[in-house]
């Protein structure tokens, strides 16, 4: 029988003069040559949280503490950029949730899809790679104007907070949360981070809006890990 082994991945970064590191064990059955890419996300989440913690401390030291708190959900109505790796991670996470919660979330994904189609945004989102920067910015504003809540939003809180996307972890403000309802006002003071792990991942894969996770993962199944021949 195949024997399960584990490969430990270590990553170190120097951020604002502080060394941060993360590690994750990748359980890999011996008959699999490589695990799915989503298995790397826990270490990227660790690193992102470490970068954010440094920024939070710096903001507190400057007497500008983070104003985000549970119940603030304006940012949960933005077009959240994620990678295919994160999309498959979220799809697997959704399948593992309790059935009633998973059913509600799937309904919200369907409702969001219908709303985007009705607003004439769905085809633009599906072909966003063809749009110039100014049209992408306009698309982002139009998306926010629809006020579509993230399908994972439950009672004004993230139902998958521990496993939320990298971009969500990196979005923090020090301004009054009320300003977040109008991101184009110029009154939103977003926290500067010493590094953005989400950008590093986005540099290796094309992005897609979180609201299209079921559509994308259905049309683009996760690659099956390569099998290694058994020992003679």
Report on this structure.
The protein is α+β, with helices and mostly antiparallel strands and 232 residues long. Helices cover 39% and strands 14% of the residues. It contains 8 helices and 6 strands; from the N terminus they run ββαβααααββααβα. The strands form 3 sheets. It has a two-stranded antiparallel sheet. A hairpin with a 2-residue loop joins β4 and β5. α2 crosses α8. The longest helix has 21 residues.
Number of helices: 8
Biggest β-sheet description: 2 strands, antiparallel
How much helical structure, as a percent, in the residues? 25-40%
Give the overall shape, derived from the CA principal axes: globular
Radius of gyration over all CA atoms, rounded: 19 Å
The whole-number mean of residue pLDDT values reads 85
Helix/strand structural class: alpha+beta
Total strand count, please?
Answer: 6
Order of neighbouring strands in the sheet with most strands:
1-2
Beta-strand share of residues: 5-15%
Distance between the termini: 13 Å
Order of helices and strands: EEHEHHHHEEHHEH
Q: Are there runs of 5+ residues with pLDDT below 50, and where?
A: 1-5
SSE arrangement:
Blueprint (H helix, E strand, L loop, with lengths): L3 E12 L2 E12 L11 H21 L19 E2 L1 H13 L2 H20 L3 H5 L6 H13 L7 E2 L2 E2 L7 H5 L26 H6 L5 E2 L3 H7 L13
Antiparallel strand pairs: 1-2, 3-6, 4-5
């Amino acid at each position: 029988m195949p024997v399960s082994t584990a490969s430990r991945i270590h990553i170190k970064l120097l951020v604002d003069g502080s060394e941060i590191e993360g590690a994750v064990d990748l359980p890999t059955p011996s008959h699999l040559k490589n695990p799915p890419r989503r298995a790397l996300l826990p270490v990227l989440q660790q690193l992102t949280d470490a970068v954010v913690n440094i920024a939070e401390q710096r903001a507190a030291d400057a007497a500008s503490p983070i104003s985000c708190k549970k119940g603030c959900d304006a940012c949960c109505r933005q077009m959240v950029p994620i990678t295919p790796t994160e999309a498959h991670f979220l799809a697997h996470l959704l399948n593992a949730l309790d059935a009633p919660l998973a059913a509600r979330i799937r309904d919200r994904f369907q409702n969001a899809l219908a709303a985007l189609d009705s607003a004439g945004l769905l085809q633009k989102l599906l072909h966003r790679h063809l749009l110039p920067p100014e049209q992408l910015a306009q698309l982002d504003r139009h998306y926010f104007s629809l006020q579509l809540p993230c399908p994972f939003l439950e009672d004004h809180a993230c139902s998958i907070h521990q496993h939320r996307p990298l971009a969500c972890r990196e979005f923090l403000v020090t301004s009054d949360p009320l300003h977040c309802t109008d991101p184009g006002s110029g009154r939103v003071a977003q926290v500067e981070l010493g590094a953005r792990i989400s950008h590093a991942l986005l540099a290796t894969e094309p992005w897609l809006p979180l609201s299209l996770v079921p559509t994308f993962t259905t049309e683009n199944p996760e690659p099956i890990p390569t099998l290694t021949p058994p020992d003679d």
